[in-house]
Batch of 3 targets.
Target 1
Amino acid sequence: MADYRSYEALQTDLDDDGVLVVTLNRPERLNAFNGPLRRSIRSIIDDAATDDDVRVFVLTGAGRGFCSGADLTAEDRSPVPVAPHDPAFAWSVDLLEMPKPTIAAINGVAAGGGLGFALLCDIRICSTEARLLPVWLKRAIHPDDLITWTLPRMVGLGRALHWLYQAEDIPLDEALSSGVVQSLVAPDQLMPETLELATRLAALPPMHLALTKQAVLRGMTREPWDAAGMETWGQTKALASADFREGIAAFTERRPPRFTGS
């Protein structure tokens, strides 16, 4: 099992079910991105994506904020490290495509890049005390963290541009009804509900979750015929797995399945 205790400006906890909770830990700055936090995020995305002990990846923030975007006052404002010739926001694609379920537990303000960061996760559970604030244009900053891709696919072109142009708080009831967040809960229920969902997902077959996520993401920009090919490829791999045989055996024997990822 990898050691998840050495990341600067992050708190981490990996439980026995394979749920890795990653807490942005700059509460005095509402968890705004500075250089060390960006570097830690880059590292933990890479580490968790390739670690078989991590089955579900959960993001949240310490204190009153989820993430307030870039810390424009930080002494070290260096960007997320990327490979030579990669786009500056290539790390966003890596989080979006992480081959396991990802959940954002939005406990407080998610502004600018912090909002974009949350939208890279598969599922967002949001506190009723949170704020979703696409503030970029008020600061003369271009929207980033892939929100120009994620947001219109969630809510449609017109609504996405309306929110980005206005750069005001997204009403939480609209965020829920439009699919920006999947659940809106009282603050004291945020982590219990998030962890309950994460634990249920962690019990599912890891390879099958990864194949499903890949097919859905690729299908968002392809034709139905391409989706048929992706599903055929994924189904072939799934049917050849030990977890498929375990799923059938558990159903036949009327017991909970024990999926191992093989």
Note: Strands lie at 10-14, 19-24, 56-61, 65-67, 102-106, 109-111, 123-127, 131-133, 183-185.
Target 2
Amino acid sequence: MIHQPIDTDIRTIHLIGICGTGMGTLAAMLQEAGYLVRGSDENVYPPMSTFLASRNIQIKEGYRAENLAPPPDLVVVGNVIRRDNPEAVAAVEQNLDYCSMPQALHRFFLNSSQSVVAAGTHGKTTTAALLVWLLTVAGMDPGCLVGGLMANFQQSYLLGRGPYFVVEGDEYDTAFFDKGPKFLHYQPQICVLTSVEFDHADIFPDLQAVENAFAQLVTSIPPDGLLIANADDPGASRLSRKARCRLVTYGLQEPAQIRVEMAEYGVGTTRFNVSGPQGFEASFNSPLAGAHNLSNTLSMVSLAYELGLDPGTIQKTLTNFKGVRRRQEVRGEPDGVTVIDDYAHHPTAVQATLEALRPFYAGRRLWAIFEPRTNSSKRRVFQERYATVFDAADLVLIKEPPGLHSIAPEERLSAAQLVRDINERGVEAHYFPEVDTMLPFIMSGAKAGDVLLIMSTGSFDNLIERLLEELNKRPA
């Protein structure tokens, strides 16, 4: 079934900044829904360029007014596009209908479904993927847009035919003409709130500004809606009290309606017992490592309980959940060395990921290889905090953050100082100015049984691919 848009006269849609992760995914969704889709971008490169090419979606390289000829029925403007972008200027001058990516998502897909939004500083991608897989296992055929490739579907979206549409709720700003958070456009009927901490230092001046954004999300849920909030997270717990709708809480430590009574984190599995209202009790096994993933799982259990799904459906969801790409993703085990790709960047996420993998790979040497890459992690705002989050590692490698020239010197993170601080805590740490010096160090020290956790929000200069190639060259 194709979702029916409100504007049935729209046929051709042009996306400015089409190669962004969200924009490229939206382009594929719109094409699959029956629209003629085209777009433009600069510095076009794989994997998004090849993904769009495989869909025969035309991409104009570079931004020019003539890219809008012939005039499309709608222009979608990505949030990386500045006000003075030639195509954005031309769209306004030609009086073309234009909107942001979140507005387009709502306009063409969310308006015909019950919106289920997974939001929070941490865990929203895995949580959203778990919710999608739960609804799929339950036969509800959900639509979705998730900020990562869901391994169960080998893509990041579904159009779906059922009543629910799951979307990952990003708090980042929407577009040059709309500086409000993206998630305010998703109008959730059901919202999962995992956590609220300071992040995105490039757009939020302080924690209060972040909390103000999430408060708007919480109060936007209608009175007949549902908020599922993490009782263990102080920010999420505090903001959940502002909700006008029914509130369901989940937790591992704090008292909550859906709560973990027992948890065992072992090699390759997590076992836990859950209790809830009206005598609800069940035991589950999960393939996901760590307390942070157990918390994400508990939000899924909470939704399952609210929808009246039985424990068997929940266990089937967990048993067959294949995870999300770049979230504790094992990329290979050449020569007995386990190489894991992870998106962790915020100090809380880095610490949680390391603490999760320690019992999961008990008795093995754990390397933490980290590239501070986001606008927040490259700044001094987390300088002292980062020094405290690597204690679960046996060996820490820190690369100089890229793009520091765009940040004032007094605001920059010092990777060299961070390494000195980690060493002072008794954890061996090393600083590297670039991957070309880091790679030989890894190859000279990595041995069978080691676990290499590589954390970056970007390509890390293809470190993983280069590392796997070199490890595969080793004699057996």
Note: The longest strand covers residues 258-266.
Target 3
Amino acid sequence: MTPPVQLTLLGTPSITGRSGDSRGSSFQGQALALLSVLAWAGDRGIPREKLLALFWPEVAAYRASHRLRQLVHRVRSGPGFGGLITGKSELRLDPERAVCDLWEFIEARKSGHFERAVELYGGQFLDGFFLHDAIEFEHWVEGRRLALEREYHETLEALAVQAELRHDTVAAADWWGRLAEHDPLSSGVTMHLMAALASTGYRARALEQARLYQEQVRAKLDASPNPAVSALAKELRKVTVDRAGDAGTLRPLVLGVLPLDSWDGSPETQALAHSLTEELTTAVSAVPGIQVASRSWMAGTHEGAGDVRVIGERLGLDRLLEGSVRQAGARMRVLVRLVDVADGHQLWSQCYDRVVGEGFEALDALAMEVVEAMRGHLSMER
């Protein structure tokens, strides 16, 4: 039997009863807020004490408990809503009596049905909903809203990377484009989209995307755009088309950047290695003709496989950039290696000595130096 209640929480919230009638007007305010909290809690449920602290933190306990009982009774009394809220000390929604787009979104992500998850994400969590005089609830909503936006962002990124790894440049450009609409101020997303558009032969659109990013960063953040975007745009203007293939297309090299190892395992060196890995990934993403596996995929794969050939086979890579960071006092030594994943042979390596306390600008400059040197090797190799 079809569950009697359809709860929509992604985008403009609404509640549809058994007969299909919308109850958005009669279930506004605290009733809708209560159902939203219970839907988020899922099978775990939520203790009454937490609900009291969320909705009436400054009201005496006995009065707040009375208000909660009245609110639960009002929801249960609605036609077709009997039995929707279950439990005594802990309240939860009966999954046999309700369906919820939030539940479906979470389940789609868990099962790897990312396209379905994107379809289900109708907008921000409780978009446009406001509960008067409920600061704790508003803070709760904001936290969940940001968490879901991150999950949506990760889902689009996963789809884009999957498309790149199977060399479907058209699909990759589409997914990166949707991600750019969701996060237009991200230089990383912008560069991925530019590379994908260039790979499909739309270099003019890639250059237009760079311009839009730069304008929005200046207008909305009153800040300077990431110079890496300008550098990529400059490269795209002078890149040569591979005449051996279809006109207007590029032959991408798929490369992964493994998390740099920390020699001593100290928190300081680990943080340094993590920051430099991020900078290297961003810098190499700006090189035309190279597709880069996402940081999250590389980190997850690296944990489960020690052989670079296994990692490369899993993600469909051509090359891997790996290395290590060693810190001694105020100085650090960075060793990087470019490896052919087909046979595990080292193709190129370089060692760099730097002062640790030079800040993010020094890490960015070092990453650019590494990528330029690696790029020179790849040019000779090709």
Note: The chain has three domains: 5-148, 166-238, 253-381.
